[in-house]
Automatic annotation (TrEMBL):
Protein name (Swiss-Prot/TrEMBL): Protoheme IX farnesyltransferase
Compartments reported by the entry: Cell membrane
EC annotation from Swiss-Prot or TrEMBL: 2.5.1.141
Signal sequence extent: none
Organism of origin: Mesorhizobium australicum
A GO cellular component entry from the record: plasma membrane
Length: 310
């Protein structure tokens, strides 16, 4: 790959990178979602945890997520330069050299894993290390350019953070943390395939086998709707199993109904609709949905504990 072959020559040039460019390498918007879901996983755990240890654990998850983002941008710099959505990123724009991004990502990865292991829990650290490896190597270097199922399988990387938070508090994996994992895992395909529908030209130019480019728009729309139908009952499952109250359950049902409705609009939209408005709306709503689901979960857990301690 040209971007890798040129690392040695490019690295001898003076760097134009500013602090903001390195921050952009961390994918801060993705990091915010990762941190938030990890906090929910940690808060939901039944084992009390020292606030300082909890802060260290979440900070390590944030740094690990940033490391994954930097390594992803390093490897994907060639295709990022082709796609309009990513062309202004630090590496394709020339503000950060590839070697700098690679070194930055590797240092952050090692730092986050070792700190989490030494100061919090080695099982949580191992899971964080696997998450970084899964995103940077299995998804970015292999699945993304090889199969239209890249988002389905690769979505596991984004689903691990609440499990890491849970393990940091308990030292083990519980069923509740697995359900939190599944919520994100099942949410990922409809979220990213909605994006792929109105950015299929970008993905096509970059040679990325996203579902609309390989299976066609109709098949993609059907799969978005199918995943949405599975996601909704899984998101309600914590209330059914008694992990949280039916206050959360009601929120999950309402949000789920909205998600399915948006997915149905995508399924029903005309093939001649070049605006892809329903897909754009689903993409935006899906972000709101995931934040709202996990916020409701967090509020419910905290409220239960306050009531129990009263």
């Amino acid at each position: 790959m040209a971007i890798v072959e040129n690392i040695g020559r490019e690295d001898i040039r003076p760097s134009e990178a500013m602090a903001g460019d390195y921050f952009a390498l961390l994918k801060p918007r993705v990091m915010a979602l990762v941190v938030f879901t990890a906090i929910v996983g940690l808060a939901a755990a039944p084992t009390p945890i020292n606030p300082l240890i909890a802060f260290i654990a979440i900070a390590c998850v944030a740094v690990g997520a940033g490391a994954s983002g930097a390594l992803n941008m390093w490897y994907d710099a060639d295709i990022d330069a082709i796609m309009s959505r990513t062309a202004s990123r630090p590496i394709p724009s020339g503000r950060v050299q590839p070697g700098e991004a690679l070194a930055f990502g590797l240092v952050l990865a090692v730092l986050s894993v070792m700190t989490l292991g030494v100061l919090v829990d080695w099982m949580a650290a191992s899971l964080l290390a696997f998450t970084i490896f899964f995103y940077a190597v299995i998804y970015t270097m292999w699945l993304k350019r090889w199969t239209p199922q890249n988002i389905v399988i690769g979505g596991a990387a984004g689903a691990f953070p609440p499990m890491v938070g849970w393990v940091a508090a308990t030292g083990s994996i519980g069923l509740e943390s697995v359900i939190l994992f599944l919520i994100i895992f099942l949410w990922t395909p409809p979220h990213f395939w909605a994006l792929a529908l109105f950015k299929s030209g970008d993905y096509g130019r970059a040679g990325i086998p996203m579902m609309p480019n390989v299976a066609g728009e109709l098949s993609t729309r059907r799969q978005i709707f199918a995943y949405s139908l599975v996601l909704v009952p899984v998101a309600v499952l914590p209330a059914i199993l008694g992990y949280v109250s039916w206050g959360y359950g009601a929120v999950a049902v309402v949000l789920g109904a909205g998600f399915v409705w948006k997915a149905w609009q995508v399924l029903a939209m005309s093939s001649d609709d070049t605006t892809m408005k329903p897909a754009r709306q689903l993409f935006v709503f899906s972000i709101v949905y995931l934040f709202a689901i996990f916020a409701a979960y967090l509020v419910d857990v905290v409220a239960w504990r306050l009531v129990a301690g009263a």
